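YM 10:42: Zinc-type alcohol dehydrogenase-like protein sequence, as discussed on the call
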Amino acid sequence: MTNIASMKAVALKEYLPIDREDSLIDVELDRPSPQGRDILIRVQAVSINPVDVKVRSPKDRKEEQYRVIGWDASGIVEAVGEGVTLFQPGDEVYYAGSITRPGSNVQFQLVDERIVGHKPKNLDWAEAAALPLTTITAWEAIYDRLGVSKNPEDNAGKSILIIGAAGGVGSIATQLANLAGLTVIGTASRKDSADWALKHGAHHIITHYDDFASQIEKLGLEAPEYIFCLNSTDKHWDNIVKALAPQGNVCSIVETKGPVDLTKLQDKSGTFAWEFMFTRPMFETKDMAAQHELLNTVAKLVEDGKVVTTLTERLSPFNAANMREAHRRVESGSMIGKLVVEGFDN
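YM 10:58: structure's back
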């Protein structure tokens, strides 16, 4: 029986290859208490993303205290701080959290209420945990960075190219772009990933191994007004510039290994923007609560059957061995949809 003042967690002190048993380990930590606008969440399920793998990946650094990672979860509000107005104990929630705070690979997590949403009522814990990080990323990229209108009538005849349409973010982006009335062109490298993207809202599939512009032209389509890059910005940059419509907008979530030549967008008066879903919580921006609002909006879309979860695999119970296996699968780069670890073995 776990002490009431402690909690189970999966954590690290060293950044090691995932085949090392000590890369992620089972530990017990002190249970935190909420203050201010924080809520304490009893975690039920956690989704694993490329950011988890990137943060955990080998590096020449050691932590003095156990570090808990993980940024995608669902759970139950256990307690609230004195400044909380959006939630109360017993509420079922889903959220991604902040990369600057301890993560969700733990039984009880403190999260600012402004970046938490009410869990879709028709989803179980794992199905809900698969959504937050990718949903926030796709929503912010499409509506905040690319400037797409939420009114489908405004987008008649317009298209978006989503590079990496079958991944976690791509699977949500295709759905949101479809709802916005855009013609969705997705890239995929295999038949199973192409089928997945088509199932989740892409209208056309091209390969990211060949020239985008010529493939789009062969489909009888105009150049896309919007391009959302979810795979190797460096590799695809010239292809992106060539494919973009004049006065079009480009957004990427993939950092570059070196500089890219933005002047190549000049002739087209093209716009480039980054999307990093942790920006709002990292800097506690004035519009930080926009993440709470968008998660609630998407929960309603899920309940109405307009957006579906992208969960494809589950592992249980929640422990270090299963979390290492989850990291191995995500690290392979061949995942379609999302992998979730659920169920603390109490």
